[in-house]
Amino acid sequence: MHRHRRLGSILLGSLLVFAATEAAAVSQSTAISLTFPIGAQYSALGEAGTAVNRDVTAQWWNLGGFAFAADEGRTLHGHVMYSRLVPDLADDVALYWMGGAAYVEGWGMLGASLTFLDQGEQIQTGLDGTAGDTFSSSEWALQGSYGVKFAPNIGVGIGVKYVRIDLAPGSVLADQGASGNGSSWAADLGVLWDVTDDVHLGGTLTNLGGDVTFVDEQQADPLPTNYRLGFGWDVLKTTQSRLTVIYDYMDMLVDGDETVVHGGGVEWTYAQLLSVRGGYKYDDEGDIKDITWGFGFDLEQAIGTPLVFDYARVPQAQDLEQVNRFSLGMRW
Fold first, then answer.
1. For position 138, what pLDDT does the model report?
2. pTM of this prediction?
């Protein structure tokens, strides 16, 4: 217990230090793959979940919640997600995520995840408009995560990630001195506080790291640094039903300017078997003002297999088709 408190104190202190540091940038943000919410469950809830997520996908949402992942006696966790992003424009652009975690006695939760954004195939176009070679573009981020309880009702966590962006091979660039590839390191910090058994608060700082350089240091692009504040309230809890209301406030750096995003939703779960979800996302800068919805099944309750399936339907910018997200979680 003393080790837990010591580790928790270190992480909580780090979070407060970063919270006092103002994020600034002067050029266009990059690494868009880091901005897509992970997991269909919370995507269906207005893309909110900072104060309530406490499973393996909390490596994206809130590493403070990740500290609670083993509370139900499950010490090994896995999760995969798939989502096409612009089905009405291109059928080869998709987001993939996989993550795993394990509880280590005396230490807390350890985890790792991989985010991969396949941006599809592109065709090189010359200055005279002629078509050239075909090439592929992609982004990926590999993250290591750690979460620990600072107190029985307070979890803190930290994640370190390596981000790689492969836009194009140098052979297809007009500026032969430029590079179509870039990389950077970043850190995430999070805290989750169960104020009572029914009321939960969470806060995160994510993508705190160096710029990604493609041409030179003067033209480097910053990572999409953001912070989230979340609220969750279990309005109803009985032996058969649970009704939860959640809300997230996010402030993100986009194109050198700050943009504020609001999201929230309601989840109703029956007999720990079926969950029905609905929410709303308001992103004025991104031109997204629409509902989200989805559902989930706990297959362990139904057929004894330790799997959870979730589906979400989420909006994009106006005039773009809504997208589907599919998730499959495993717990042992």
1. 94
2. 0.87
